[in-house]
């Protein structure tokens, strides 16, 4: 719980009253390796804060899954579009390692927004961070080659290079595993 408080305090200092209100609505949970947190076609009900682990966001397809995102410890995890709209998710979220979380339901989060001074500020800041991640990824696909996208990972997201299997990295940058192997040979 202290890890989440430090993270939130970095975004916006909550009063003790607001923190107590928020933290009393959190629930601890954990998932095994390769377990789905959110399944495509289901509605997202929670916002998670990952205490430890790695997850990937992907679109299951009959012949080849498309991985489009990763989250690590001390990051928020959710199918945010489904969480906001209540509609079924177009993608799945799966643990790549055993993972533990603190989570809050949509109803409890809304209660925090309604009943605390800092809740809406923190919610807005988290939404802005999610937007920036997605916007940067979209711009990379529009303006960079696959090799440039791979090289950018070394400076922008080095944790991906260290911890993510190559087949997921290849999908993430929009190439086949074989094409990623060729890219890696060219740059080494």
Description of the structure:
The structure is a single chain. By secondary structure, the chain is an alpha+beta fold. It folds into two domains: 2-142, Jelly Rolls (Sandwich); 144-188. Helix content is 51%, strand content 22%. It is built from nine helices and eight strands. The protein has helices at 2-11, 16-23, 80-85, 106-115, 119-143, 146-156, 158-163, 166-173, 177-187; strands at 27-31, 36-38, 46-52, 54-59, 66-72, 76-77, 92-95, 99-105. A four-stranded antiparallel sheet has the order 1-8-3-6. The protein has a four-stranded antiparallel sheet with strand order 2-7-4-5. Strand 4 and strand 5 form a beta hairpin. The radius of gyration is 18 Å and the shape is elongated. The N and C termini lie far apart (42 Å). The model has no long low-confidence stretch (mean pLDDT 93).
The amount of beta strand, in percent, is 15-25%
Distance between the termini: 42 Å
Topology, number of strands? 8
Question: What is the H/E order?
Answer: HHEEEEEEHEEHHHHHH
Tally the structural domains.
2
Output the CATH class name of the largest domain.
Mainly Beta
Structural class, from helix and strand content?
A: alpha+beta
The side-by-side strand order for the widest beta sheet comes to 1-8-3-6
The helical percent reads: 40-55%
Indicate the low-confidence ranges by residue numbers.
none
Query: So, the CATH homologous superfamily of the largest domain?
Result: Jelly Rolls
Rg result: 18 Å
CATH topology of the largest domain: Jelly Rolls
Instruction: State the helix count.
Output: 9
Report the CATH architecture of the largest domain: Sandwich
Inertia-based shape: elongated
Major sheet description: 4 strands, antiparallel
């Amino acid at each position: 719980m202290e890890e989440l408080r430090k993270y939130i305090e970095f975004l916006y200092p909550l009063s003790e009253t607001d923190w107590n209100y928020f933290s009393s609505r959190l629930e601890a949970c954990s998932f095994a390796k390769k377990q789905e947190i959110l399944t495509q076609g289901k509605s997202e009900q929670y916002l998670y804060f990952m205490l430890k682990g790695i997850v990937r966001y992907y679109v299951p397809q009959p012949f080849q899954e498309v991985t489009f995102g990763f989250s690590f410890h001390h990051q928020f995890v959710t199918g945010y579009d489904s969480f906001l709209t209540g509609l079924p998710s177009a993608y799945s979220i799966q643990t790549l390692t055993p993972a533990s979380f603190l989570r809050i339901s949509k109803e409890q989060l809304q209660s925090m927004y309604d009943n605390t001074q800092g809740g809406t500020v923190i919610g807005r800041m988290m939404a802005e961070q999610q937007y920036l991640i997605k916007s940067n990824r979209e711009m990379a696909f529009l303006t960079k080659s696959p090799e440039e996208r791979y090289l950018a990972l070394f400076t922008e997201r080095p944790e991906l290079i260290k911890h993510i299997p190559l087949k997921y990295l290849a999908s993430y940058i929009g190439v086949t595993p074989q094409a990623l192997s060729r890219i890696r040979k060219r740059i080494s």
